[in-house]
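Researcher: Structure for this, please.
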Amino acid sequence: MSATAPAYRRILLCYDGRRESRDALRQGGELAAALGAETHVLLVSSVIHNASAYAAVTELQVDVENSACKRILQEGLEWLRARGVEATPHVVLGTPIDVIPRIARELNVDLIVVGHVARSALGRWWAGPENASLLDRVRCCVLVTVVVA
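Model: Predicted structure, C-alpha cell format:
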C-alpha cells in the first residue's frame, strides 16, 4: 500500500437505530468522510427471522418490520449524507453474528464498525448460539465503539 492510499477503502457500518449503533455510525461515518472511503450501511433484521422460528409470520408482521427497517436505515443514511458521506444501504434478514461476516466478505470491506453496550461480558453481544466471536469470523479490521450502559 502506498503512503498516500487510505488504510480503509471500504467501510461497513452496522446500524440498527439503537444507541450503540448510532455511536458506531457517527464514529465510522467520520472516519469514512476523512478517508473518502466507499461506505456501506448494514441493518440486520432479526425480529422476523427470530419470530419465524417459533410461529408463522404474517404478511402484516413482515410489512411492519420492513417499514421499520426502511425508516431506521433512512435515518442513518440522512445523518451520513448531511456530513458528506454517501453510503450504500443493505438490509439483510438473519442474525448479526451470521450476517455481518458474510456481507463483509461479499463487499470485500477493509473495516467493520459496530457498536456495543458495555455490560458484564463483552462476548454476550458478539456471541452467537455457538459462542463464536465476530472477530473469529471476519478477515478484516473491526472497530468497536463502546457505550456505557
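Researcher: Any notable elements?
Model: The beta strands are 10-14, 38-45, 87-93, 111-118, 141-148. The longest helix spans residues 59-82.
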